[in-house]
Specification:
Length: 113
């Protein structure tokens, strides 16, 4: 059974940091591209960050650039999202995805107050 297992969400004060983790399990081979998306109440889902698993190339949304860092883990098909200088507008449900493979996680809530 293929699934994306997310962890690390919760509540943090404005200006704080938080790290999200995501592992694609039950899948054989490379996920090619993994990333994080988020959706706040009443807003459309937006891309936060993505990483090409083979080359390590990264992409960031304009609102998080220079504050968030996406990285690969030592285990295959594992990614992390380090979120720094968090703002109230970063509050959302964060989803991990391997979009080119069609896999999405259940989401983990991040609340910044």
């Amino acid at each position: 059974h293929v699934q994306l297992v997310e962890s690390g969400g919760g509540s943090v004060e404005s200006g704080g940091s938080m790290r999200l983790s995501c592992e694609l399990t039950g899948f054989s081979g490379s996920s090619h591209l993994m990333g994080w998306f988020r959706q706040a109440p009443g807003k459309e889902r937006e891309g936060v960050a993505a990483i090409v698993m083979s080359g390590g190339y990264t992409f960031y949304g304009a609102s998080v650039k220079d504050r968030f860092i996406i990285s690969r883990g030592s285990a295959e098909n594992t990614v992390y999202l380090q979120m720094n200088s968090l703002k109230s507008e970063d509050t959302a449900l964060y989803y991990c995805a391997a979009p080119t493979r069609g896999y999405w996680g259940q989401g983990t809530q991040v609340t910044v107050s």
